[in-house]
# Entry
Amino acid sequence: MNVATKTDKMLSRKDGGVGYLIFNNPERHNAVSLEMWEVATAIIADFAADKSIRVAVLTGAGGKAFVSGADISKFESERSSKAAIDHYNEVVDKANAAVFEFPKPTIAMIRGYCIGGGMGLAMCCDMRICSDNSKFGVPAAKLGLGYGFKGIKKLVDVVGPSFAKEIFYTARQFTAAEAQMMSLVNRVLPDAEVEKYVKDYADTISGNAPLTVHSVKAIVGEVLKPESERDLKKCADLVKQCFASNDYIEGRTAFMEKRKPAFTGS
# Structure
């Protein structure tokens, strides 16, 4: 099922409890235009509203790139003035925020290039699983671009300050092995195995207790905030909600009966 869109450059489908968002511009290594960012935001909103969707997987079509950044061929029409640049940045920030704040687990399935805005988007996902031929980089220093606090903080939260500086200072492309060493990615797999691995991982997460998974995602989000901004009551309430749920009863019963639990998220 696809969200009704004005472009065929963005695709979505639903497979059981997993929603797939696909950047479909392979002839440009899935470079992203303004319209594509807008549609990505709409697709994520659809996944968030659909109670049957428990996990979202973000990926790129064609097998040669996740997202290679902005579509430079569109710069003249989309980023040629300060007002246009401000609007573009606002749309990209909205799309990244929609992924980062998505209440359900997210997996970036990366095959090939993950560059610039693709790196920014991948950092908004909970996990990153890539092929062994993937390449990562932020070429801002080669283009004279500025990166704001939010984007850099997301990278620092994942790889730490020293590696974040190395990524930006050098503006070079890093291999999948280097990315794993920096904890930029969770898993590196042979290219032919990535899709099945991610599907199995997403299905596994989808089959677990949604309230538990949601609570962990929310609490980790609070951990990453400055101590003065953390909502500890929210964390405690989410834990209480798990223990008061039908799923807690189902989990215990299934364990005793040695069967797979059927969680409903209630």
